MFS transporter
Amino acid sequence: MSPTPSRTLALIVLSAASLMTILDGSIVTVAMPAIQHDLGFTPAALSWTVNAYLLPFGGLLLLAGRLGDLIGRRTMFLAGNALFTLASLLAGLSATPAMLIAARFLQGVGSAMASAVVLGILVTLFTEPGERARAIGVFSFTGAVGASLGQVLGGVLTDALSWHWIFFINLPIGLVSVALAVRVLPADRGTGLAAGADALGAALVTGGLMLGIYTVVKVEEYGWAAAHTLGLGALSLALLAGFFARQATARTPLMPLRVLRSRNVSGANLAQMLGLSAMFAFQILVALYMQKVLGYSALETGLAMLPAAVAIGGISLFLSARLNARFGARAVLVAGLVLLMAAMGWLTRVPVQASYVTDLLPVMLLIAGGGLVLPALATLGMSAARPDDAGLVSGLFNTTQQIGMALGVAVLSTMAASRTGDLLVRGVTDAAALTGGYRLAFGIAAALLLSALVVAVTVLRSPAPAADRPAPAEALNK
């Protein structure tokens, strides 16, 4: 059965909103030197143009997802989109570092509110397995495009206009998304705050996640063994442990622990955390390798990575749904992870003097495995979500995405820098030392993907056909 025009338009709205938030995660990185020059950021403070966005985005996803179930996912999506759009205007108008950091924080809050419920809305709109798989493929396509387009667009806008326009570009997208969402997204009343208004649980999980993400993004500055890292890391784990203890005893828990009893919910989130740790670090580290070792400009780097975005986007848009339907989401996930492992293995041999065609283009094509992995994980992760838990499971899925990306960048960047430092001490040239560090990081990324593959094979199960699928309450216990 073909989706109705209103549902197709709803999918476009949801995908456009996702594209906007993903774009914003990468578009700033290219413009950071211009922002520092214009606003007078110190080198240490400049990182907060990124961190001020990541902290609320990653820390509030789980809370926003549950609140979406309670007050209505459409309401949460509209409020988040509106806040993000307003914050983008403030960011573009910023004249001081403090104003920009505050606007970026508000952008992160709005992103969390909107992103947390997108998958929850999508799976309630598209209930038939085939059309749901196609919808998830389209949704994953926009994610792939946004991740790579951000770097290209950031370079073009900053060079042609000014860094202010990397934020102003969100305004037309946000305004149109809100206007259309009011018309095409189904109204849902939610179960009411009384069904899960756990204020203490909300404080524990939000504090634990935000503190944990802050600890991870500061690892490069302090190191893994520093008192700062160990102390805040331990406090973050204690807060999260307190949250889970609270959920086991609360009368109206923020996150009913039954959702984690599903093999597919827990397994897909773990596999996603491991896999995205490698994939996001790939995006960052390959870009650094091109610029610092090969001498590419920011725009050249973005264009060089476009084949990866096209390959991932094409696979997720045109093939993933058919393959999931024919072979099952788990089999497709396994195939995608194998391709990604091959890409990382290829990168462990990159030379100091590389040819793009022979040394990097094959990687950009192999990374197409991401177009199989992301839709399959979304299908598996949302397969057992009850209607009244869809926002929560969607928020959980997005939370593990953010944690995986933050951990991946922190771990792999730190290991690469350490290896580079060791090689420099031995008298190796700068380019060779940097290359050696990146090779090590790509090897670790391959190991992370292997771990995700083990989880996929041993834990995950492809969803049963609709006729054979158990009732939602039974599915969450499997």
Q: What stands out?
A: The chain is about 80% helix and 0% strand. The first helix runs from residue 5 to 39. The chain has three domains: 1-197, 198-251, 261-461+472-478. Residues 359 and 392 are 42 Å apart (CA to CA).
